[in-house]
Design a protein that fits this description.
heterotetramer, A: mainly alpha, 12 helices, B: mainly alpha
């Protein structure tokens, strides 16, 4: 009976997920597509929870429901009402449909065959055996920040590159309409709460699902809320602080990596005794830089006085002769 | 009944198919971006379905770490694509 | 893995039925997101889904014995507001 | 005994959830839908949270569930207000 109920739940969840995905991709109205996409993000958080991946449910909830929803909604202002209709000729459309269907069937066969063939090598055994050495007790954080520290370092670099492109491309987006008192009243209690929760998520990441990315995205959501609630009163960070915030995550990561290299001749090979504290230092710095990066990515452009900051450094470069970044 | 692992991984494949079809079909940036994110979600679902070990056993943490990184990168890629889109719009208007 | 919380099978069955009913109520709510003529209708469906999601996460954390799902529910509750604010503030910039 | 009480609470909470989502679908205009939504949000989630609190052994998690419920109450009140005001402002422009 219990298995039956679990299967009913799984099948309905999967069918709903596929229906949402299908409607998001094939509806004409842009607004409906984005709303269904946000709904799919929420549903995905529940799917991750069902598949016993609480870290991902947390990340999907924060990023899926929070950041990417806000990003897409603010992007809609640039495409307000153009119908989303594919202009391909029916012939090409037919070919695309057939080819993707064939690919999907092939992939389903591959997955079916793969799962039935053998259970395959499970890495969780090695992770659990190495956990006491890793300095944290949450296996996902151990994998992210100790066993695969390179991967996380480069991921921070990817986020930074994405934000730098956003900054170089456009001016800051026009400010929004003056917001009502209620919204500002709400932010008085909600933003501090978001910041406290972000700190909690950062701290809890060592022994339970949480960590730098979810905490950083929470902070970014708080900043986005502040920006939406107080559009006029936008005192920009001064730009030096903003640049430091953006880079501090990678900077600390590499610094600790080099320091570890000097001690036990391997980049990012943490000595077990200090691993816990080192990971916490790296995570704090990563949280700050992810928050700054996602907030700037949401804003969609470089702050107003970014130019003259560049101009001064550029003028130094011309007459000073040394190159600038 | 078929195992949860197979059900969810086939759902992942389905999501990928739907996303891929829409990415190829649409011209404008926003629908293609949504479709690409659906593709990404499909791949992540296949990953996590394979990592799932049943109600009793602990799920495999390594794919969880990979997909967590994937989610963060997907968001920053979406932000970048939107900024590029805005820039193109601005250039077209000039 | 199954601690005392969800050991009796009657309780598990009841919780599973509740979970399925919650998912069913989400599906009904989502029709509004699909049909909804105006933007605000669609977003009321998203609000329902946020709360329904929180309820499902609470039940799932008992069923699967993963206490971390309470944090996920907490985050989902906080973040549903950001989406709504993003909608209401961004769309009406022309008045 | 506790389990049966908890199941009772959860299922009565579900009743409100279902009525809320059916109301979301059938009621004529946005504002009555938001009204129905509030029912599902606040009372439905409160009862489900109460049921889960009874089932959850650890007290620290019970406190967390109460915090979640209070947050959802506040968040859904404000979000429905924002959505309603946004709808009003949009319509006022058209006429």
């Amino acid at each position: 009976m219990i298995e039956l109920l679990w299967s009913i739940f799984d099948i309905t969840l999967v069918l709903l997920l596929l229906a949402l995905a299908w409607n998001t991709c094939s509806t004409r109205d842009v607004m409906r597509a984005v709303t269904l996409f946000i709904a799919m993000g929420l549903l995905l958080a529940i799917v991750w929870a069902r598949l016993k991946a609480p870290d991902l449910a947390l990340a999907e909830a924060v990023i899926g429901a929070g950041i990417s929803g806000a990003l897409l909604l603010s992007a809609i202002r640039d495409y307000p009402s153009t119908p989303m209709v594919s202009q391909r000729s029916t012939l090409i459309e037919g070919i695309i449909n057939i080819l993707t269907l064939a690919l999907t069937i092939l992939m389903s066969w591959a997955v079916w065959h793969g799962l039935n063939m053998s259970d395959g090598v499970r890495l969780s055994g090695q992770v659990i055996s190495q956990l006491p050495v890793s300095g944290v007790s949450n296996p996902v954080t151990a994998v992210l920040l100790n066993f695969r520290a390179y991967d996380t370092l480069l991921e921070l670099a990817v986020v930074l590159t994405a934000v730098l492109t956003v900054l170089t491309l456009n001016e800051k987006r026009a400010d929004y309409v003056v917001s009502g008192r209620l919204l500002q009243g709400m932010t008085h209690w909600l933003v501090p709460l978001l910041v406290v929760t972000s700190g909690y998520l950062l701290w809890v990441g060592a022994h339970a699902p949480g960590g730098a990315f979810q905490a950083g995205a929470m902070l970014a959501a708080a900043m986005i809320l502040l920006r939406l609630a107080y559009p006029s009163k936008q005192q920009e960070f001064n730009n030096v602080l903003l640049r430091v915030l953006l880079v501090i995550g990678i900077f600390t990561f590499v610094l600790v990596g080099l320091w570890m290299m000097s001690l036990n001749d391997d980049f990012l090979a943490f000595t077990p005794a200090w691993a816990g504290t080192l990971i916490l230092i790296i995570e704090t710095a990563a949280t700050v830089s992810i928050a700054a990066a996602l907030t700037l990515a949401y804003r969609g452009g470089r702050p107003k006085d970014w130019e003259d900051a560049n101009r001064t450094s550029r003028s130094i470069a011309e007459n000073g002769g040394q190159d600038d970044q | 009944m078929i195992s949860e692992q197979l059900l969810y991984s086939l759902a992942g494949v389905g999501l990928f198919g739907i996303g891929l079809r829409a990415t190829l079909l649409h011209h404008m940036l926003l629908p293609r971006l949504l479709a690409l994110n659906v593709c990404g979600a499909g791949v992540f679902l296949i990953f996590i379905a394979i990592a799932y070990g049943g109600l009793k056993i602990m799920a495999d943490p390594v794919p969880h770490a990979l997909v967590l990184t994937g989610i963060v990168v997907a968001v920053s890629a979406t932000a970048m694509a939107l900024a590029l889109g805005r820039r193109l719009e601005a250039l077209d208007d000039e | 893995m199954m601690s005392s919380g969800a050991s009796t099978s009657i309780l598990t069955i009841a919780l599973l039925i509740a979970l399925n009913l919650l998912l069913f109520s989400l599906i009904i709510g989502l029709f509004r997101a699909w049909l909804g003529p105006s933007v605000e209708d669609r977003f009321s469906a998203i609000l329902l889904m946020g709360t329904g999601g929180v309820a499902m996460l609470l039940i799932l954390s008992i069923l699967l014995q993963i206490t971390a799902l309470y944090d996920v529910a907490l985050v989902l509750a906080l973040l549903a507001v950001v989406g709504t604010v993003a909608l209401t503030q961004s769309k009406s910039d022309h008045d | 005994m506790i389990d049966t009480l908890a199941i009772l609470a959860i299922f009565s909470g579900l009743f409100f959830f279902l009525s809320g989502s059916i109301g979301l679908l059938r009621l004529p205009d946005l504002f009555s839908r938001l009204h129905a939504l509030a029912k599902a949000d606040n009372v439905g989630l409160a009862l489900v949270a109460l049921g889960v609190i009874m089932l959850e052994p650890a007290v620290i998690n019970d406190i967390k569930i109460v915090i979640i419920w209070i947050l959802v109450m506040a968040a859904s009140a404000i979000s429905s207000h924002l959505v309603a005001r946004h709808a009003l402002r949009e319509n006022r422009e058209d006429d």
